[in-house]
């Protein structure tokens, strides 16, 4: 149910939003690949890493959105560089091409697998075409990006780098009507640990898990959940999404992006195979 007085607008990104760190690998000679860079958390992470001096190659199927991300990076006065590459993450050739293109820009050291989607439906009614599409984008594609990127990271002079996966509170527990999303996020936990196991210490794997973030994807999910349950969008946010949380506000995309910046930095050298859980107390507290 539409609530005309309830604002569901995602915040605009500004230069002051981003955490910047002093790190020997944060310079334009080193490259990060960010998937889902045309909007939401992927866009914010691409700009945040560029703000830390990296050359960032953003992969997304939305070419117009990638161009807008580039404009935002320019407006934020980033010290690094952003290149958008139109990429179908469900096509192996596209994935290999964008990773190879990133490696041509410098030393590929960082990957942020962020691209996501959602479909709200119960398991008995869940369309298998949507299940396949969602898991292709959110689980198979991160594996393929990782597979393509690991050789390039290992080919740098010291093999130092990090591959980060966008997980979720739904990688820690399950709720109703999101079975494919939950399956993908739990799978990313396993992929993260596998990266750490094979990374030999220099190449780290980590994941980021957050609660509800005000992104275009989340706005769509709020609208779908309201329709599915026959309640207002305000009730979805306040009672369904934040009902169990102790911090009663949604995160912003920039706040999540800053977790990726920290995780890729020298300050997180012991974060390997682990998860950064920033959920306002949602997962580990209850009444």
Outline:
This protein is of the alpha/beta class. It has 8 helices and 7 strands. The protein is 42% helix and 15% strand.
The parts where pLDDT drops under 50 for at least 5 residues are: none
Radius of gyration: 18 Å
Give the helix tally.
8
Helix content range of the residues, please?
40-55%
CATH class membership: Alpha Beta
Give the SSE order as H and E letters.
Answer: EHEHEHEHEHEHHHE
Q: Name the overall outline.
A: globular
For the termini, the CA-CA separation is 28 Å
The strand count comes to 7
Helix and strand content put the structural class at alpha/beta
What does the average pLDDT come to? 92
Structure description:
- This protein is α/β, with parallel strands linked by helices.
- It has one domain (17-211, 252-277): NAD(P)-binding Rossmann-like Domain (Rossmann fold).
- 42% of the residues lie in helices and 15% in strands.
- It contains 8 helices and 7 strands; from the N terminus they run βαβαβαβαβαβαααβ.
- Strand 2 (55-60), helix 2 (63-75) and strand 3 form a beta-alpha-beta unit.
- The longest helix has 27 residues, at 128-154.
- The protein is globular and about 55 Å long.
- The mean pLDDT is 92.
Note the main attributes of this structure:
287 residues, 7 strands, 42% helix, alpha/beta, 8 helices, Rossmann fold
């Amino acid at each position: 149910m539409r609530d005309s007085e309830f604002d569901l607008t995602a915040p605009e990104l500004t230069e002051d939003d981003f955490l910047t760190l002093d790190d020997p690998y944060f310079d334009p000679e080193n490259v990060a690949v960010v998937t889902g860079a045309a909007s939401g958390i992927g866009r914010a992470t691409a700009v945040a890493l560029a703000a830390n001096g990296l050359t960032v190659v953003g992969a997304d199927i939305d070419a117009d959105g990638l161009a807008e991300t580039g404009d935002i990076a320019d407006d934020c006065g980033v010290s690094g560089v952003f290149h958008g590459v139109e990429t179908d993450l469900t096509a192996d050739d596209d994935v290999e091409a964008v990773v190879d293109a990133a490696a041509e820009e410098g030393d590929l050291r960082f990957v942020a697998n962020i691209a996501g989607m959602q479909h709200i439906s119960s398991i008995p009614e869940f369309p298998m075409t949507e299940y396949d599409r969602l898991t292709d984008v959110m689980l198979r594609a991160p594996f393929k990006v990782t597979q393509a990127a690991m050789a390039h990271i290992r080919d740098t002079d010291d093999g130092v780098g990090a591959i980060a996966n966008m997980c979720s509170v739904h990688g820690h527990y399950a709720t109703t009507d999101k079975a494919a999303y939950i399956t993908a996020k739990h799978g990313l936990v396993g992929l993260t640990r596998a990266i750490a196991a094979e990374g030999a210490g220099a190449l780290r794997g980590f994941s980021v898990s957050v609660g509800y973030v005000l992104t275009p994807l989340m706005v769509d999910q709020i609208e779908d959940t309201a329709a599915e349950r026959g309640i207002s969008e305000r009730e979805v946010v306040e009672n369904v999404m934040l009902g169990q949380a102790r911090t009663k506000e949604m995160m912003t995309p920039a706040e999540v992006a800053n977790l990726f910046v920290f995780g890729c930095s020298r300050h997180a050298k012991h974060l390997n195979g682990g998860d950064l859980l920033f959920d306002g107390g949602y997962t580990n507290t209850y009444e």
